[in-house]
């Protein structure tokens, strides 16, 4: 190992693969951009929904399908086979390809003239985006050792709130000036440049490169090829992995429902326009989550040195603390107070992000890390994807009674149940995490 400078420190394993500290940071930054484009393209649609609903004459149930089940089912299901490819093949090629696919399909969404056309285009966006997170988390786990994994995954996870911030902010401003179609074009096409940069500059490390033990002469292709079901069973036999997936899935149920419907809620119940909603939600969601996810990662790395259970307890307690705050967000009539309370509510509920990602990578075998991340994403989307759909159906059902406030009460009901449910799984994961990580 050379010590000529922090940016030139080089680590080499028994296979001859070497990496400098500077290049490791470059890879983390590149994968951060992948996540940023992923979440920006995905959530920008939410701030455009009031205009799209009017232009295409959509019902809340149809909007719930486009933003929920129609997108997330394909996102989740396609993530599994893509992750299997990533665990055996080139993660560089996979990430570059999926970025190109979802970028093109996001732009095509701007050409939709009907519900069916928009639904098909969004489904294909989901197919493309399915391959990004599992491959990216697997790469980060191979570049960073266990004691730095939560904080490095936290940096990657920051791409989510940053992408949401830019998606809401730029989406709202562009749509306010040029319309929702131009906003979709503006977000989709730049992703093609990122896909090319990834293809030309990203290097795939040997599996387990950053782990404590090195395995001479071992490559991804030389590892024992386990069947999908064998791998699935080996992961779920660890109870903390199951509870992590459920905690993440139920959290996603609540958060996707909020993120996709919050602009419509503010428009209907508080009379805000598209540009105002985009700017306010961009900074409230984006900054609260940036602070929470990074803080959660740093805290998790410190707590795990004392006891592996502590980060999970911290996560469950933080989620419960957010409950009363979200209750006030949905029942109060003052938009100023609502927006003020929303910031701490989102901060506390988002503290668990890095802890969840790190737990899944720590209990997975080095050759199964992409698949483990994909299974977590599967729960995020199969369970979480129901959130926008359930809220949309509930809002339509409550419309005769509550009129424009039907969405308010649909969101309130879903949020309260999901927060308690998710926190419970974090506490249950803490009960077995030490033996599962050791195994």
Describe the structure.
This protein has 439 residues and is mostly helical. It has a single domain (20-202, 231-438), classed as Growth Hormone, Chain: A (Up-down Bundle), CATH 1.20.1250. It has 20 helices and two strands. The chain has a two-stranded antiparallel sheet with strand order 1-2. Helix 12 runs antiparallel to helix 16. The protein is globular and about 60 Å long.
Q: For this structure, what is the CATH homologous superfamily?
A: MFS general substrate transporter like domains
Radius of gyration: 21 Å
Please tell me the total number of domains.
1
| Main sheet specs | 2 strands, antiparallel
Number of E strands: 2
Distance between the termini: 30 Å
- Total count of helical runs of at least 4 residues: 20
Give average pLDDT, whole number. 81
Order of strands, main sheet, comes to: 1-2
Spans of at least 5 consecutive residues with low confidence: 1-9, 213-223
Q: Give the CATH topology.
A: Growth Hormone, Chain: A
Q: What's the helical proportion of residues?
A: over 70%
Tell me which CATH architecture applies here: Up-down Bundle
Structural class estimated from helices and strands: mainly alpha
CATH class category name: Mainly Alpha
Apparent shape = globular
Beta-strand content bin: under 5%
């Amino acid at each position: 190992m050379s010590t000529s400078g922090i940016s030139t420190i080089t680590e080499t394993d028994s296979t001859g693969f070497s990496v400098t500290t500077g290049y490791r940071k470059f890879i983390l930054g590149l994968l951060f951009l992948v996540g940023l484009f992923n979440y920006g393209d995905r959530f920008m649609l939410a701030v455009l929904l009031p205009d799209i609903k009017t232009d295409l004459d959509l019902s809340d149930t149809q909007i719930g399908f486009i933003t929920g089940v129609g997108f997330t089912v394909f996102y989740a299901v396609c993530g599994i086979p893509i992750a299997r490819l990533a665990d055996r093949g080139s993660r560089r090629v996979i990430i570059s390809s999926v970025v190109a696919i979802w970028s093109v399909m996001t732009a095509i969404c701007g050409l939709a003239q009907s519900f069916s056309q928009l639904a098909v285009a969004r489904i294909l966006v989901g197919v493309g985006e399915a391959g990004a997170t599992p491959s990216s988390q697997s790469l980060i786990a191979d570049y960073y050792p266990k004691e730095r994994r939560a904080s490095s995954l936290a940096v990657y996870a920051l791409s989510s709130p940053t992408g949401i911030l830019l998606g809401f902010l730029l989406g709202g401003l562009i749509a306010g000036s040029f319309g929702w179609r131009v906003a979709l074009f503006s977000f989709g096409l730049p992703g093609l440049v990122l896909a090319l940069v990834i293809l030309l500059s990203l290097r795939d490390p040997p599996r387990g490169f950053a782990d404590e033990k090195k395995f001479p002469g071992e490559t991804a292709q030389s590892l024992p090829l386990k069947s999908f079901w064998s791998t699935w069973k080996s992961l779920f036999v660890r109870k903390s992995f199951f509870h992590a997936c459920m905690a993440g899935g139920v959290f996603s149920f609540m958060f996707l429902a909020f993120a996709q419907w919050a602009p419509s809620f503010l428009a209907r119940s508080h009379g805000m326009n598209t540009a105002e909603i985009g700017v306010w939600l961009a900074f409230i969601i984006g900054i609260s989550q940036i602070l929470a996810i990074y803080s959660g990662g740093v805290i998790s790395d410190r707590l795990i040195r004392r006891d592996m259970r502590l980060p999970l307890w911290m996560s469950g307690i933080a989620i419960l603390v957010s409950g009363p705050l979200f209750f006030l967000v949905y029942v109060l009539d003052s938009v100023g107070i609502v927006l003020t309370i929303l910031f701490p509510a989102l901060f506390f509920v988002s503290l668990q992000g890095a802890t969840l990602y790190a737990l899944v990578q720590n209990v997975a075998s080095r050759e199964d890390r992409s698949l483990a991340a994909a299974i977590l994403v599967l729960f995020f989307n199969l369970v979480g994807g129901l959130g926008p759909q359930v809220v949309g159906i509930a809002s339509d059902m409550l419309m005769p009674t509550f009129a424009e406030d039907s969405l308010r009460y649909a969101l309130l009901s879903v949020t309260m149940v999901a927060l308690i449910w998710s926190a419970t799984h974090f506490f249950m994961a803490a009960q077995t995490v030490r033996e599962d990580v050791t195994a």
